Amino acid sequence: MFLLLLMGIFEFGLLLRNDLALGNAAVAGARAASVAADDPDADFRVLRAIAHGADAWGAANLDFVVVFRAAGPDEQVPAECKTGPVAGVCNYFRPADFNLPYEDVAGDLTPYWGCVDGSVDEFWCPADRPVSLSWVEPASSGFNDGPAYIGVYLQGRHRFATRIFGDSMQLSETRVLQLEPRLR
After folding, report:
1. Considering only CA atoms, which of 122, 49, 63, 125 is closest in space to residue 94?
2. Where are the beta strands (DSSP E) in 116-167?
3. pLDDT confidence band for 114 (50 / 70 / 90)
């Protein structure tokens, strides 16, 4: 009985560590998304921030990442974005996308980025994100008038070491921040 209790404490500690690492990665990604806003390399920077934030757990344990357009600070990721990208709403990234280079050795943009057909950021192009101080979204869009928000959703798996509680458990985290306004 004592051994079972000890293993439970061990598993709970690892689960808590991984959940905190996922939360840190989501915060880092949302901050990067907010600051980068409409920069062409915004989503690239988001993935780099997430990878750095998830160091304690490892970005390889993530199933996917969604960068999405949010209507407000309490918005959740749209359900359809959890299965793939949606034009004008979200970009969907897999773990392999974390290793895609932004520029080649000559300093030219690679075909993986740049909002072109086939690039990983083509569905909600960072350059199309509203960031001016006076931005007002048309009422017909379904988004609120006023400041624009961006969300980052991460989903991954915690793998149990002892397998007493099963093989794995899904963890997810969402963070939404206002896009940093810019004078134009």
Report:
1. 63
2. 149-159
3. very high
